[in-house]
Amino acid sequence: MWNTSADEMIETIRSEAKYTASYTGRDKFSDRVMQAMRDVDRKAFVPEAYQHMAYDNGPLSIGHGQTISQPYIVALMTDMLNLTPQSRVLEIGTGSGYQAAILSRVAKYVYTIERVPALAQAATKRLAQLGYHNIEVRCDDGYYGWQDKAPFDAIIVTAAASHIPQSLTDQLQTGGRMIIPVGLQYLPQQLLLVSKDETGNTRTEFILDVAFVPLVTEADNLVPPDHEPGT
Ligand code: SAH
């Protein structure tokens, strides 16, 4: 059954959060995250052809083989970051800009990187038109993070990586958190939470199985420096 209104979308997120509590360790998301999910109209980020499905709890195509994520997953990933109004966040995979808009309501500033130029341009324009002033979009390979703006209190990767990029872990502030889907394309991937403690040690926890479009990066095609052909 499709959600036909934003209120129904919020109710679905609430019940999904309860349903997945044994995996996520939380049976509801913070008031600030739920308020952001109410305040940001998903319809403004969904292509014309799918407007009637804008509040449904599923991913939707945004062109270029990419998708806007499922609302429940957007809420979950945002909640897992434990953001405060002072947080500076890095997102990899701007897509439609919807997740960035949600983050911008919960955090202080959002830096977001998108590799497809047309999507980066469309998201920049859309976010400006909607009046978001605390989001900066950049077109690049997000695998390497955003060194000039690091460290970040939180990092969110919204495309599935083959592994956790060391460059992103390095750009995470002590006490910070990163949420990232890791795994192979078309298989359930694992949503992982990486926490960096005050001494800089990281801990990785499995949250739940997810399905994201792949993180496309030249890093996956590079030969590791210690690799000798034929060995
Ligand atoms: N967060 C988005 C949905 C993400 S879909 C939203 O709210 O709409 C994943 C996005 O990651 C796609 O737009 C894809 O082009 C982008 N992407 C894939 N690999 C990337 C990379 N290496 N760097 C930056 N963006 C990447």
Describe the structure.
This protein has 231 residues and is of the alpha/beta class. The chain has a single domain (6-215), classed as Vaccinia Virus protein VP39 (Rossmann fold), CATH 3.40.50.150. Helices cover 28% and strands 25% of the residues. It has seven helices and nine strands, in the order αααββαβαβαββαβββ. A seven-stranded mixed sheet has the order 5-4-3-6-7-8-9. Strands 1-2 form a two-stranded antiparallel ribbon. Helix 6 links the parallel strand 4 and strand 5. The chain is globular and about 55 Å long. The chain binds S-adenosyl-L-homocysteine.
Defining traits:
Rossmann fold; binds S-adenosyl-L-homocysteine
Q: Biggest β-sheet, characterized? A: 7 strands, mixed
- The top-level CATH class is Alpha Beta
Bound molecules: S-adenosyl-L-homocysteine
Q: Structural class given helices, strands, pairing? A: alpha/beta
Order of SSEs? HHHEEHEHEHEEHEEE
Strand runs, count: 9
Radius of gyration, whole Å: 17 Å
* Count of all domains: 1
Secondary structure elements and pairings:
Blueprint: H1 6-19, H2 21-24, H3 31-39, E1 60-63, E2 66-68, H4 71-80, E3 88-92, H5 98-106, E4 109-114, H6 117-129, E5 135-139, E6 152-157, H7 166-170, E7 172-182, E8 189-196, E9 202-210
Parallel strand pairs: 3-4, 3-6, 4-5, 6-7
Antiparallel strand pairs: 1-2, 7-8, 8-9
Helix pairs in contact: 1-4, 3-5
